[in-house]
Amino acid sequence: MSSLIHTTASTFGDGPRFDRERDLRMNVMGRFSVAVAGDIVITRPISQLALPGVAEALAPFRAANLAIGNLEQTIADRHTFSGHPYGIPSFLVMANPSVARDLANIGFHILGRANNRLSDFGVEGNRETDRHLREAGIAPVGFGEHLADARAPVYVDIPQGRVGAVSATTHTNHGLDAVFGASARVGLSNGRPGANSLRVSRTVVLPEDAWRSLKDFLSQHPYAFPGTFPVQPTVMVYEDKLRIGNDLFVAGRLPAYQYEVDADDERALLRSVATAAAYSDFCVCLVHGHQWAIDPVNPQGGTKGETSKPPDFLPKLARKVIDSGADMFCMTGPFEFRAIEVYRDKPIFYGLGSFIRQAYMQEVLPWESYRARQFGDRHHAAIDPHATDMTDAEILLSRAPSHPGAYFEGATATCSYEAGAIREIAIEPIELSLDGPTSNLGVPKRARDQHAVRILDRISRNCTQFGTTVAIADDGRGIIKL
Q1: What is the pLDDT of residues 36-66, one digit of tens each?
Q2: Which CATH code of 3.30.310, 3.40.630, 1.10.357, 3.60.21 fits the domain covering 28-190+263-360+400-481?
Q3: Counting C-beta atoms within 10 Å of the first and last residue's C-beta, which end of the chain has fewer, N or C?
């Protein structure tokens, strides 16, 4: 190769440059506080409520310099909305645009939008939701008109500096990409609107005898798992593994669920995080998903089998996100408030639970809510909405998946920083008005007395696996000192 002797290009060495050590670290130097909440499903304004405990539950978000949560619904005016319902029929929530202003009144600056409810009212619903949030002064993140748009960070400028955020959703059914996952603009494709999707595959580890029995069964009864079309295989039998649908099955010493993140999706997420960190003074990554771990000693299915331990891929992913420049990692999706890890002096929330859950109060039910379906021990005949005497509230509460009471209690967290370092995490226990009336179901209130102690004890037990100690303060909050 020839050596360059002379050029008219700029060769100055004293111009601007990117310094990874300088530019990816947190650069908010004064006192700074960040309040984080889990899943939000809000169908009516609540910030004005004078009910006992509500103002206290909302207070951390009004007091913080930055407030972040995850929005799991559509915001649109049903009288003028031109789209249609498409999503998961257990609940399809469309709320009046007034709730966007209410979320701003509560104090939210950024709301994650990449989650499994993004398909509920289609592209039109997502565009409407993002528009109403922006008009209320809230930055939505995670939905885009194509893949690069969905992956792109959003930025919010506050008095303490610039905040960057990235939002992604994980799932195990890769076919759902065509429903709510954004696609890229490549070749003749104009891309597809949707979520920033982080594909995660699952492997089920079975005891040796169970795995061999399953292998024999699949080999002898290949018709037992029919798919939509005969040309598409739903079962594949290998010497050392089995595939049924989207899940792999292997033999192992103890039962377990093992997960693997798609390498290209992970690389893209980490790049987006690094970009957000470079262009901001504080960077947060929001991930929403519903993978779970099971107890290897007493493995069970469904909600009975779900443990509070994070799925195996999540700690590895969260730490990579922090290593890429994020100052905070927030996982939503699990309905309970789970463990907190402090990694390299950065908080990782492995599950923020629910903050507002008003999925059972809807002005108009989609037709799917009246149709017959089965959830475990529940089976209903189809209901003609014009002939039934059941109220919409009864239909929603009887037909939704059976959620345990623990899904309606949890916590919020406020991280306090000083001189560029985290000093304290304060945990505020909340309960979501499970005892009614139904008009207030899902409204957050400050948990009291033994109820608060029970919530904080559970969170404390979850945290011990990461060496995080939660102390109970005199005012009933959980405190993590750093």
Answers
A1: 999 999 999 999 999 999 999 999 999 999 9
A2: 3.60.21
A3: N
